[in-house]
Amino acid sequence: xxxxxxxxxxxxxxxxxxxxxxxxxxxxxxxxxxxxxxxxxxxxxxxxxxxxxxxxxxxxxxxxxxxxxxxxxxxxxxxxxxxxxxxxxxxxxxxxxxxxxxxxxxxxxxxxxxxxxxxxxxxxxxxxxxxxxxxxxxxxxxxxxxxxxxxxxxxxxxxxxxxxxxxxxxxxxxxxxxxxxxxxxxxxxxxxxxxxxxxxxxxxxxxxxxxxxxxxxxxxxxxxxxxxxxxxxxxxxxxxxxxxxxxxxxxxxxxxxxxxxxxxxxxxxxxxxxxxxxxxxxxxxxxxxxxxxxxxxxxxxxxxxxxxxxxxxxxxxxxxxxxxxxxxxxxxxxxxxxxxxxxxxxxxxxxxxxxxxxxxxxxxxxxxxxxxxxxxxxxxxxxxxxxxxxxxxxxxxx
Amino acid sequence: xxxxxxxxxxxxxxxxxxxxxxxxxxxxxxxxxxxxxxxxxxxxxxxxxxxxxxxxxxxxxxxxxxxxxxxxxxxxxxxxxxxxxxxxxxxxxxxxxxxxxxxxxxxxxxxxxxxxxxxxxxxxxxxxxxxxxxxxxxxxxxxxxxxxxxxxxxxxxxxxxxxxxxxxxxxxxxxxxxxxxxxxxxxxxxxxxxxxxxxxxxxxxxxxxxxxxxxxxxxxxxxxxxxxxxxxxxxxxxxxxxxxxxxxxxxxxxxxxxxxxxxxxxxxxxxxxxxxxxxxxxxxxxxxxxxxxxxxxxxxxxxxxxxxxxxxxxxxxxxxxxxxxxxxxxxxxxxxxxxxxxxxxxxxxxxxxxxxxxx
Lengths: 398, 359
Prior knowledge:
By secondary structure, chain A is of the alpha/beta class. Chain A has helices at 6-26, 35-64, 70-74, 134-140, 193-196, 200-209, 242-257, 274-285, 316-321, 324-330, 350-359, 378-395, and strands at 98-105, 142-149, 156-164, 180-184, 217-221, 267-272, 292-296, 337-345, 365-373. Chain A has twelve helices and nine strands. In chain A, helix 8 (274-285) links the parallel strand 6 (267-272) and strand 7. The longest helix of chain A is centred in the first third of the chain and has 30 residues, at 35-64. The radius of gyration of chain A is 23 Å and the shape is globular. Mean pLDDT of chain A is 88; it is low at 81-93. Helix content of chain B is 37%, strand content 18%. Chain B has eleven helices and ten strands. In chain B, helix 10 links the parallel strand 9 and strand 10. In chain B, helix 1 runs antiparallel to helix 2 and helix 5 crosses helix 11 (341-352). Chain B is elongated, with a radius of gyration of 33 Å.
């Protein structure tokens, strides 16, 4: 039974309700004012309370999409071997480094495949293989579900998504190579939420139709490549090289598969929370690939907690290298632009965000987008998106 | 009503939950009757207690995570964007990444004309902040000889110690070796960049934790600096590495960890289990993750096979690499009978770089 979806949710609700019913049914048998009875009452209440909280957690997981399946929640997937130096990582990918596993029209992935699996998206303005799909694609755009095989790192990014804007399928854009915006979710998360909760492709399509931003390809990825571990886009010593995966492998795979720009000014990154750290980190570590980054409610230190484990090989020095504040203080600033967003009230990231901004020095450019108020949630990030995407569009030179 | 993230809300909910729980535990017998109304009251009482406890848990989690900052935020009532301002304007104060300090023709025995040019250069790493002194050999006829938009492949020759590179002797010898191979038609025209493995000491081309970032210099700063000045190829198939003496560690480490930039390396045969000189980890930490990563034989055995070509020259020990490497990595070893190792390595690099159908 899947972790998400109504069968498991209703099962947990039924179990919680059943435990409530049992308590009501057993009630008269525990009605003596004796210690054993009182303890049993408390035990029954706490048991049904725990089951109720479990059902609420399953509901919250369905709503916010933290974990998409049991295997990512429990870490039984094939890629959980970070910092396990004894195991041999699988051989790197062959020539095909990006596979399309599903496609649907519009700005939301709805499952299924409207294009044949062997369709080629190499050229813009050419509907791959099926001319009759042209009208739909060129008015609504297309979302593809993709698996990205890292050629150099061997990391596999499964269940990532690519949004090709309507213009991608319009004849007048036939010879265009589109800029690419690499979009990171937070942790723990499913990239589907970039469509379902953040509405990013829909907002981009609306701004594009209004002529406020130029069309771009949106590559929507999960920064956590080995859930439930939080990998923080870090090259783990003697482990998964996550920074190289997003900084090199993903751009190579996308540039080979789509009519995408390849020059340094053609790529940017955006993300929220953990994804914001990743976006800024990619621009700072690979400034020749990413010219700009947007951080929505981000942090700038090298995180280390229960979910990350030690990503730095036990080395304080290497951890500092992954600290973006430290990099700005101790290394020359990279030639990129960053937009950092936070809220004047309601967002804990504000002091660290402003602190990071103060460290920005030429040739790096820093911009701030501060909302009057708003917390660490999708309402806030949705409100920040129009200004952020317009800012990105201006940075991605033609 | 107390704010959604206020401590008051948490305390209010905690007191409420505790009071309701206490009342339920003590008042339990009064609801123990058998009538329908009694059963309904039990359900209501239980639901009240559980709802108050659940509310407490949700309030604590929201407060800890800072998810919804107020009741209006929770209900999605805030609208509109914020103020976008530029805080730190960058000036493109572009100092030259590569400066040519001097330039001299390269002459070889048996030729009256110079065969290429040897330049002494200073390279300032834009991202690493490291500055290197080195030499650049330009083949005869550079830059017109190739014609059209053709670009020259680049061999980065790395010697162990700065002394050998900065002293022109070694650079001249390598330039003459390249010039001879080019003049005899065994090597096609290409650019040779000669650098030490570190700006001061031999860093093995490693990023020392929170120290000099030599790997960053070689993988990002160097290609950009060369491209800013010379008609050099930009693809990975145009870039190869030549390890000279203890620079072999640096070259092999770079091709293994920066394969998106370099596609081939020719190095003296060796075991390469740890970096040369002072760059290595203390003896006790060689089994630490960073120490393991610096062991190049370990790296070949544990990271995915990189699409690179490696040549081991000379009579040293390279068996471990030959036995571990699998496709797409290609490893060959050659102990030259007559030709000097540098000529052999140059010829081999000239063949594998930008080879037709190459990667």
